[in-house]
Amino acid sequence: MVRPFKMKNFLVRVLLYSLILSFTPSLFAFAHIGSPGVLVQKQAGKYQVLVNVIPPDVVPGTAKVTVYVESGRASSILARPIYFSSGDEGAPVHDELQAVAENRYEGVVWMMDSGSSSIELNIDGPDGKASLVAPVLSVPTRMEPMPTGTGVGLAALGILLIVLFITTVGASLADGTLKPGQSIPKSYGRKRLVGMGIAAILLGVGLTGWRTWWTSWADGYRNHELYAPTPIQTTVKAKADGPSVLAIRIDTSHFAEGGIKRRRLGFIVPDHGKLMHVFLARTPGLDAFAHLHPDRKELDQFESNLPDLPAGQYLLYADVVFRSGFAETLTDTITIPDRSSKTVAGGKNRPQTDPDDSWLVTEAMGVKPTAVGLPHLDDDMVLCGIPGASSKLSDGSTLLWTDKPAAVLETGTPYVLKFALADAQGKPAPLEPYLGMSGHAAIVRSDGTVYIHLHPVGTYSMAAETFLVDRIADTTRRFQYPDATQFRDSIDRYVARLKQLPEAEKNALLLAGMPAMSHPMKVKNMVEFPYAFPRSGHYRIWVQVKRNGQVLTGVFDTQVKDGLL
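RESULT FIELD:
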């Protein structure tokens, strides 16, 4: 529901945006590549819920919200959007989600403003009341051309209106001036034509001016409102007496254009204690992988020592989060030169910039990027009659993909990907916190068009959730940014301090800065990640856990086909 005082603006904006978007080409997705949906799995009060939000492609537009109540007795769920720009005070009232199946609720929520936002859910039932927030980026990313039939119909209607207007003006200046029953003088024919001619000229001038305004307005919307990925320039600096350096520079040349292209680089905030998470995957086989955390050298420049990865071309995905909760994935490709004399596979002799950096060199996927129906390397075992997979880790332990729903998964289905760690003797091996959580995962489609960085609580950034929750508690209608230089300096000091802390203290500090996750695992050697694969194809999954102070990476492959619905 939209508040009454917003209804007029709402209707006007929907009409204008829909017309503009009808003539604009489509764009790529932001914040995680090719995977726009948001999955949140959390404990809220006595309710364990899995929330799936599909944000709109255009704004204004509707976000589809589905809530699965996995435990707890819920009788109603309310949802509303809360925008970072206007906070709780500027948010509309709640809409009620409809119960469509047992413990499943669905509905749509209108997203009226672009930018960082969230969906607030209020749950009520016999087990009490609870609320949670699902971070959502409400940014127009996809444009649909106007259907041919609609265009023809509107053109015909416009021509009819123009003809009616011109003939009406001519009649009003001639026939309309006669008394009832009076005959029409011949001179009125010329008068009618003159009136129609003047009306046509004035209408032509008006339509020309309107078209000029419309084109200017549409260009402004296209250039300043539609999401445009922030370009980066990456280079590999080779050193004869040390490790190569990965340098990432954020291209600020388009910032002056304003709107969605501008980024507040001074307000990049740490997520899990890191200002930037960089994932590298060698193409085409995705057989070499790295998870790095570059240091900020300048406002727009980040650097990290490269591990001893094999030479080749790599996909690069760099995740950053801004103070507004806006999360973005910066992408590029890099070429790592051959340094075979110093290459060491398996993560030994690591020339780290950050102690939490990790990497893995393993076998290629074993399938061509366009292959369909080929067997995969992941289904190498059966656990209690259920297909499973195993991955041998560098310390001799084994990571198991348990409870795999099927040998081939389906698109659009929310899965909970569960993994268990066993030591060399096959016994459960307890996990240690890694960057404040029980594990991290990265998923990449074989052609690189889909990428996601997963956490046990979902597909969103924990830093984004923190700032969005704080913004809801803020009673001001407009957020005031602090001094950019002072804010940046304080963040740099915080990140540097984290690096120097013992592991236990660092994880305790990270956990204290996150919203309460209430996401304990019943078995201490297990970690799980909710995810819905957006496209069919072949995927590689890297699961990262920590044991005995060492970051361990397991690799799994799976095939995904289009779902029935």
